[in-house]
Structure formats: structure tokens, C-alpha cells
Amino acid sequence: MGLLGFLYSQLLVTSVYPTTSCAGQTIIVTGSNSGLGKEAARHFARLGASKVILAVRNMKAGEAAKYDIENTTRCNAAVIEVWPLDLASYQSVKSFATRASDLPRLDILLENAGITTNNWEIIKGIGHERTIAINVISTFFLAILMLPKLKSSAKDFGIQPRLTIVSSEFHGRTKFPEWKEPNTFDALNEPSKISFSERYPTSKLLEILLLRQIAPAIEGSGVILNALTPGLCHSELTREVNSFLTIFKFFFTRSTEIGSRTLVISAMAGVESHGKYMRNGKVDDTARSPFVRSNDGEKASEKVWEELRTILESIQPGVTGNL
Ligand SMILES: NC(=O)c1ccc[n+]([C@@H]2O[C@H](COP(=O)([O-])OP(=O)(O)OC[C@H]3O[C@@H](n4cnc5c(N)ncnc54)[C@H](OP(=O)(O)O)[C@@H]3O)[C@@H](O)[C@H]2O)c1
Questions:
Q1: Mind telling me the catalytic residues?
Q2: 122-133: per-residue pLDDT in tens?
Q3: Residue 251 burial class via C-beta count within 10 angstroms: exposed 0-12, middle 13-18, buried 19 and up
Q4: For the chain, is the Cβ count within 10 Å smaller at the N or the C terminus?
Q5: Which of 164, 237, 244, 246 to mutate to test the pocket of ligand 1 (most atoms within 8 A of CB)?
Q6: 28-38, pLDDT tens digit by residue?
Q7: Across 226-244, average pLDDT
């Protein structure tokens, strides 16, 4: 999408206020102590979900978000639960997934947690750069760990559970030279080659490329997998960076609540959204970058998925059998 398309979407399009009931549903929102995740959780609580799990790395902040959501929606005190999840730790992801697998049902897993940073760090025990580890590897590790629960919920309750990943318009703002390296994830671990301005966009591009590969593998399972861009919104996302993004945000941002509507709508979207990218609450393949739509983009999707599959199998042998 070009600059004009972005400005049009940002300034002239507002997603509708969600009104579809979530009665009876169990919903997990990662990174929901702040920003878009918290506002999406507030919508789900307002829409009558039975259980909304705030999956957060900071329990104190999670409890504060729970209190705030309860106060504004007047939902029953039993609806919101705060569970620990740190995507910078595979052990934490595994523990979370084990606990969540005991839920009677799971209607929506909204994978919203993410970071952008200008600080180089290889996470101990993970062995990957922090942005890639959190936004990509752990996000898909959790998704694949939760697939059996999503699939069994589809079968046992006759529902279409959603697995929704919050990506970004910025996925188009990277040249992504690493895709041509012998091993892309290894190349992304090379500090001398990093461009911090491209790192966050690259992580968001990887989400879209990977989702496209995974979606066909779960076709027919009843689970709907999609991704979305919320547009540029007020949040705490740029807390670790001083970049053009901060300046851009000052002029063109949506409120967090308006942005969160796109998360909620995507997490309720139908089969037409399976394997697709959504913008402003609608499937919009033209909003994917030219690279994603190119032959090279197809090849890159296949390549990075094979590499991620190897990484996930090294974390937990057999896990990709969940697909
Ligand atoms: N805001 C925008 O303009 C925009 C545009 C496009 C896409 N997005 C995407 O929207 C999503 C939400 O971002 P936001 O804008 O709402 O920013 P935000 O307010 O910073 O929210 C990010 C959330 O992710 C959590 N998080 C970070 N690292 C984590 C970890 N290791 N484990 C678990 N949770 C972690 C944060 O928790 P802490 O508070 O503990 O750090 C926070 O709750 C992100 O995926 C972002 O890429 C945002």
C-alpha cells in the first residue's frame, strides 16, 4: 500500500464499533495490560464474553488492566482473569499453553503482544534477537501449541475458533535482504548487519509470510487463522525507540480504542478471512506489500516456514505435528 492509501485509511476510514455478542466465549488476548490489547479485551468484556484472559508478562500491570476493564464495562468479576505469559521465555510460553489447554473451550486466541526496539539483545535461553524472538518465534510457538485446544473446541462445540495475529502496515517498510541468505533466522541474528529501522517491519512481514504457509495446513479443522493491521494508533509501542515512527504517530494516529476495533472484528471474522490479511475490519489482499504478493514473496514464505519449523522442533520435538 502506498502513502496515499495509508493516509486515506488512516484519516478517512473508521472501523465500525463492534456489536456482535461474545456470550459464552472464552477469549485470550496476549499483551493486554496496555494499548490495543487492553482495549480489545475491554470490547470482549463489554460484548458479554464468559472469560477474557489477559495474558501478560507484568502481573501487576495485568491486574490494573483487569480493574480498569471491570470498572468501565461493569462485567462480572469472574470474567477477567490475568495469567502470566512472557514471550521472551519458551518455558513461560509452554507453561501458559499447558494451563490454557485445560480450559473447557477456547473461542479466540488474539496474539497481540509485540515490541519494537533499537536495543540489540539476543535473549538468553532462546538464542534469537529480541524482536524476532517475541514477535515471531514465540508468537507462532504459542499459536501452534494452542492449535489442539482450538481444534477440539471447534469439534466439541460446533464453533469456528479464531487465531488472530496482530501484524502491521509497516510490514512493507523493509527490504528484507535476509530472505536470500542461506538461513534467514541466522542472518537476523547477525548484529553487524542489523538495520533497526527495518527490524520491526521485518518481524511483521515474517508474521504475514508465515501465516500464509500455515493456513493451508489447518484448512478444514474449523479454526480460522488471520492477520491484521490496526493502522497507526496511540499506544506504548514506541517506548523503546526514538524514530520517525514517533513523529509520524504524533500527526496520524488513531485512538487506541478505534484501532482495537480492527482486532476485535478480525477475531470474529468468517472463513473468508482464513489465511488472509485484514485492514479496517475487511479482508484486503491489496494492502499486503508488493513483496508479499510477488513470486519472491512466495518463495520467502516457503523458506522461512521451513526454517521456523526446524526452530520450533528444536524447542519442542513433535510440536509442528499439531498442524
Ligand atoms: N500502535 C500501533 O500503531 C500499531 C500499529 C501496527 C501494529 N501494532 C501492533 O499492535 C500490537 C500491540 O501493540 P500496541 O501498539 O498496543 O503497543 P503496547 O501498548 O506497547 O502493547 C504491547 C503489549 O505487548 C506486551 N509485550 C511486550 N513484550 C512482551 C513479552 N515478552 N511477553 C508478553 N507480552 C509482551 C506489552 O507488555 P508490557 O506492557 O509488559 O511491555 C504490551 O502489553 C503489537 O503487536 C504491535 O506490533 C501496533
A1: 167, 200, 204
A2: 999 999 999 999
A3: exposed
A4: C
A5: 237
A6: 999 999 999 99
A7: 84
